């Protein structure tokens, strides 16, 4: 899925930059961190999405696949206040940047029969981070009173896979 970048301000720079980084054949963590550096310098604004896309849904957070190819995907996520994810991990490395709202992230470690909370972060507009499996078990929630928009770059074709999520966790947290 190669959506036109002309109608998405800043997307063409990201597609070109991520493509160049992925072509270097770095490891997953190194790729995530290199893409995070790129995103820090080129994080688009909310006009990356149409007004209708920025509305989100009253039922759950919404994802918009903006670009997908075999080696990476760029996805915008729209979160209304209070919306969040279940505890999950990912199929690949991921880099994300916050355009608006506050994404509260809780990190976990899988202990086999239970999860242990290992950290929390409030990711604010302009902030960028990256990670790679293992060690990517988390849940995310928009804790702000405004619409949250974040941009995620995954090291996989999420249009083909249907999602970036590898596994949902239903283990007790101790």
UniProtKB/TrEMBL annotation:
Recorded protein name is Cysteine dioxygenase
- Which Pfam family, any one, appears in the UniProt record? CDO_I
The family database entries (CDD domains) matched by this protein are listed as: cupin_CDO
Q: Which family does it belong to?
A: Belongs to the cysteine dioxygenase family.
- Protein origin, superkingdom: Bacteria
Q: Which organism is it from?
A: Nonomuraea aridisoli
Write out the entry's keywords from A to Z.
Dioxygenase, Iron, Metal-binding, Oxidoreductase, Thioether bond
> What's an example of a GO molecular-function annotation for this chain?
oxidoreductase activity, acting on single donors with incorporation of molecular oxygen, incorporation of two atoms of oxygen
UniProt cross-references to InterPro entries, sorted A to Z = CDO_1, RmlC-like_jellyroll, RmlC_Cupin_sf
**PANTHER family given in the database record:** CYSTEINE DIOXYGENASE, CYSTEINE DIOXYGENASE TYPE 1
State where the record puts the cross-link 3'-(S-cysteinyl)-tyrosine (Cys-Tyr): 94-154
Q: Which amino acid positions bind Fe cation, per UniProt?
A: 88, 90, 138
């Amino acid at each position: 899925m190669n959506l036109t970048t002309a109608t998405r301000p800043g997307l063409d720079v990201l597609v070109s930059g991520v493509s160049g980084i992925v072509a270097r054949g770095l490891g997953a963590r190194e790729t995530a961190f290199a893409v995070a550096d790129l995103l820090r310098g080129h994080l688009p604004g909310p006009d990356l999405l149409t007004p209708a896309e920025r509305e989100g849904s009253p039922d759950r957070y919404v994802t918009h696949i903006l670009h997908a190819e075999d080696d990476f995907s760029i996805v915008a996520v729209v979160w209304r206040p209070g919306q969040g994810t279940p505890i999950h991990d990912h199929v690949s490395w991921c880099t994300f940047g916050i355009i608006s709202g506050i994404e509260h992230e809780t990190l976990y470690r899988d202990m086999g029969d239970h999860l242990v909370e290992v950290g929390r972060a409030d990711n604010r507009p302009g902030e960028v981070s990256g990670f790679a499996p293992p060690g990517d078990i988390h849940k995310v929630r928009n804790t702000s009173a405004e619409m949250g928009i974040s941009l995620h770059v995954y090291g996989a074709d999420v249009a083909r896979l249907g999602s970036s999520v590898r596994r949902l966790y239903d283990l007790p947290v101790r």
